[in-house]
Amino acid sequence: MTSNSLRSFASGLIVAASVCAAVYYLGPSEVKDSEKLDSTEKTSALSVDEMKSMLSTEGYVIHTEEEWKQQNAAKEQVDTQSQEAAAEKVVYRTMLSVSSGMTSIDVGDALAQAKIIPDGWEFAKEIENRGLSNELRPGLYEIESGKTIDEIIAIIFQ
């Protein structure tokens, strides 16, 4: 930019700032509401019976505090019953096919995938600790999730 155009630009900024300052300082200092309500609603004190009837006509349900506590207690009882029903353990059953060449890691992964045991690697380490890694027998085995690792090992490594 040339020096003349730079001066023109700067003077334009000064003029714009001056106009904004003049409007700000010389404008009205009171804030006016954009929408002023001319009609004010007068509220009268309603009795309890009038409030109940008015709310019930609007579709609301009115309960006393004792009724509210009874409903909450009934709801909590239903919730605990549903939690007890959900707490019943789901038993997974699978048919495990052990073929020749499979390792204890493969068997552990298959059992973990079938949700029989939580971790296949822990199963394989237990097999290694017991020294049964060479005792794996090929075959078809029915295994349920309710059995312990000892019972599963007894089934597969007969």
Automatic annotation (TrEMBL):
It comes from Niallia endozanthoxylica. This is Endolytic transglycosylase MltG. The lineage of its organism: Bacteria, Bacillati, Bacillota, Bacilli, Bacillales.
